[in-house]
Amino acid sequence: MICANKECVREKEFSPKTHNQKYCSDECCRIATNKKIMEKYYEKKAIRSGQKRHCKKCNSSLSRYNTSSICAKCEKNNSSSDRDKIIGMINDAC
Ligand SMILES: [Zn+2]
Ligand SMILES: [Zn+2]
């Protein structure tokens, strides 16, 4: 396994203790989690300031009231998204 933290200074492979371990250390997990929180923060800030955003899937412009990164149409088509989200959350657990 290679640490999922791109800024990891170790740059070495590690043997995960659990099958879903993505980071070589608690420190890396913390850094990566903080980064995700910051990304979400800036995304929310962009939404609030009325910045133009586009659907990640079909590139149509998003309403500023849509806090998702994809449009309602794509959200509907994306029926497996809830399941993927849950799996993603489990995988993100440190
Ligand atoms: Zn690391
Ligand atoms: Zn779309």
Question: What does the secondary structure layout of this molecule look like, with pairings?
Answer:
Blueprint: H1 26-48, H2 72-77, H3 81-92
One zinc ion binds at residues 55, 57-58, 60, 70-71, 73-74.
Task: Tell me what you see in this structure.
This protein has 94 residues and is an all-alpha fold. The protein is 44% helix and 0% strand. It is built from three helices and no strands. The chain has helices spanning 26-48, 72-77, 81-92. The protein is elongated. The relative contact order is 0.13. The model has no long low-confidence stretch (mean pLDDT 84). The chain binds zinc ion (2 copies).
Notable characteristics:
single chain; 44% helix; 0% strand; elongated; binds zinc ion
Short structural description:
The chain is mainly alpha-helical. It has three helices and no strands.
